[in-house]
Amino acid sequence: MEVVVVVVVVVKVVSVVFVVVVVVVVEVVVVVVVVVVVVVVVVEVVVVVVVVVVVVVVVVVVVVVEVVVVVVVVAVVVVVVVEVVVVAAAAEVVAVVVVVVVVVVVVVVVVVVVVVVVVVTAATTTTAAVLEAVIVVLIVVCYVISEHCLL
């Protein structure tokens, strides 16, 4: 009888120890999972903040570049108009009309391209660099055309 009591006590002690060990392991796993979830949430918040900052910086840079391009286009138009006035004073009427028509067409094309670029760039910043390059090329072409037409 005493052997049975000892066996029952040992079985009870082992089962209690087993239950305590299982509970402790489960609690440790739960704590680890909570820590991992908190770390993931913090990382996601940091990523969102970084993305927002990068987008704001890109938009500001694109707007600044667009303003610079518009200023350059206005400067080219002013130069072309001044050249037309100078040529008009010294040239024949037909040559002046041709130059004025070419300059007007070039200015209209540049203005239309700038408006399209501003609208498209406002809609998407991924193609801003290509569009800005197109504007620069158009400005150079306009300047070359104005120089050749006025010679």
Automatic annotation (TrEMBL):
UniProt KW keywords: Membrane, Transmembrane, Transmembrane helix
Residues that span the membrane, as ranges: 6-26, 33-61, 67-86, 93-120, 126-145
Name assigned to this protein: Uncharacterized protein
